[in-house]
Amino acid sequence: MTARITASVYTSHVPAIGAAIDLGKTAEPYWQPVFTGYERSKAWMTANKPDVIFLVYNDHATAFSLEIIPTFAIGCAAEFKPADEGWGPRPVPVVKGQPELAAHIAQSVILDDFDLTIVNRMDVDHGLTVPLSLMCGEPDAWPCPVIPFAVNVVQYPVPSGRRCYHLGKAIRKAVESYDEPLNVQIWGTGGMSHQLQGPRAGLINREFDNAFLDQLIADPETLSKKPHIDYIREAGSEGIELVMWLVARGAMADTPPRVVHRFYHVPASNTAVGHLILENPR
C-alpha cells in the first residue's frame, strides 16, 4: 500500500490568535467566538489523527529575509524550532519533520517541473504554529510529524492561484507514489481578507471571503484562474495569502469532497477568520 491524502484543512493563521492562546485569553469575550469555532475541529483532529501533516504556509521574514525569497520551499529537516519573531519564540512544542517523505515529495515534484527550494534548517513562525494550536490545542508534543511548505506571498511577484492549484496536484501524485501506507493531511493556511497598511488598513470583505469558500469547495478549477488583481482589490493586500489554500485544494481527489466543518468569524485582530475541513471520499 502507498500513502494517501485523506483530508485537507484550511485556516487563517492570525498571529494575535497565537498570543491569545499563549496568554490564556481564549475565554475572553472578544476571543471566545473564534476558539468556539474550532472546538469541533479539535474533536475531529483527535478522531482523525494523521501520520503526517503537509502544512502550506508563508514565512513572515523569519526563516527568509528579503535577501533570499524562495517561491516554494519544502522543509526536509528532522525538526523545526518555533521562531523568535521579536518577542521570543511561542511556548509551543518543537515541530518534528518527516525527512523521508519530504525528500520523496521534493524529488517527485521537481521532476514534475515545479522548482522547489529544499530547506534542511529553518525555524517556523506563527504561520505554521498558530494553525497547529487551533487544531491541536496545547499538547506537550504535536500529534504527528509535519512537513513545512513555505510559499512566497509577501514579496511580489507571488505565484498564481493556478500555479498553486496544479502544484497541489503534483504533491498528491508524489504522496500517492510513496511506498508506505501513511495517512497524510494537507493544510492550506493564511488569509482571509485583510490589509495591514495604507488607507485601506483593516479592510474585511465578508462577501468575497464566503464566495471564496463556496468556490473552493465546489469549483476550485475556476477559482484557480482568479487573477492577483481581484484578490488585491477585493480582499486587500494580504488577501493574496489565499492562493496557498489552492495548493491544499489541488491535492484533494478529483471527486467532490465531504465538508466536515465550515466556520467564518469577524473580527479576529484586524482580519477575518475562515476555516474549512474537507475529507476525500473513503
- The topology string of helices and strands comes to EHHHEEEEHEHEHEHHHHEE
Low-confidence stretches: none
Q: Identify the CATH architecture.
A: 3-Layer(aba) Sandwich
Helical content class: 25-40%
Could you name the CATH topology? Protocatechuate 4,5-dioxygenase, Chain B
Instruction: Return the domain count.
Output: 1
Q: Span from first to last CA?
A: 15 Å
Describe the overall structure.
With 282 residues, this protein is of the alpha/beta class. The protein has a single domain (4-253, 261-274), classed as LigB-like (Protocatechuate 4,5-dioxygenase, Chain B), CATH 3.40.830.10. Helix content is 34%, strand content 21%. The protein contains ten helices and ten strands. It has helices at residues 15-22, 32-36, 39-47, 99-111, 126-136, 161-176, 206-218, 220-223, 228-235, 243-250, and strands at residues 4-11, 52-57, 72-75, 79-80, 95-96, 117-119, 146-151, 183-189, 258-268, 271-279. The strands form two sheets. Strands 6-3-7-2-8-1-10-9 form an eight-stranded mixed sheet, with helices on both faces. The longest helix is centred in the middle third of the chain and has 16 residues, at 161-176.
What's a quick, concise take on this entry?
The protein is of the alpha/beta class. A hairpin with a 2-residue loop joins strand 9 (258-268) and strand 10 (271-279).
